[in-house]
Model the fold of this input.
Amino acid sequence: MITLIVGTNRPGSNTRKVATHVEEIYASLRVPLHLIDLARLPAEIFSPTSYAEKPKAFHPFADAILNAEGLHVVTPEYNGGMPGVLKYFIDMLKFPESFVHRPVCFVGLAAGMWGALRPVEQLQAIFGYRNAYLYPDRVFLPNIGDLLDDSGRLKDSELLERLKIQVTGFVEFVERLKGIKLRG
Ligand SMILES: Cc1cc2nc3c(=O)[nH]c(=O)nc-3n(C[C@H](O)[C@H](O)[C@H](O)COP(=O)(O)O)c2cc1C
Done:
């Protein structure tokens, strides 16, 4: 199973829309996928007591990381970095086992011209620090407002192709690293 993380909790986010494309690509490859949408985090996780004890409602989120053969993170850029909620989510996960030797892959999107290069590189530093296996081929979607149509679909087939190449490459990366077959 691959776990796909929607890296913001902003209602109606473009990140969720791009993640839907990624979800569909995994489905077309018949790779089991679990989606974590940070918009669905339980309110209790934001209590300061959560550092010491995780609320029960958070357990399925933590388990979806621990049980994943690989993680696919879709992050927007907020103030030149990753959304605070994404870092907070990472900080709430069990360590070191959540990321050690777990393959991870990144997509970034932003209103601006750098396409979330900064948050993706921040995430690479964090996951690298936690000894994850970083998949090197990243996808950046700059000027995201112009890339999506009214129904939230990517207009440019070339960008969709880039996501397909990334997902296919990441699946092969995970299969080789773990010595497993993900594709059904
Ligand atoms: C709090 C906040 C900060 C943002 N800061 C940046 C930024 O620093 N650079 C940028 O290119 N876009 C920035 N944006 C725009 C987002 O990149 C844009 O909303 C994009 O659609 C991805 O975010 P979304 O998934 O929330 O839609 C910001 C958006 C929000 C909500």
DSSP finds six helices and six strands in the chain. Residues 53 and 97 are 17 Å apart (CA to CA). The mean pLDDT is 98.
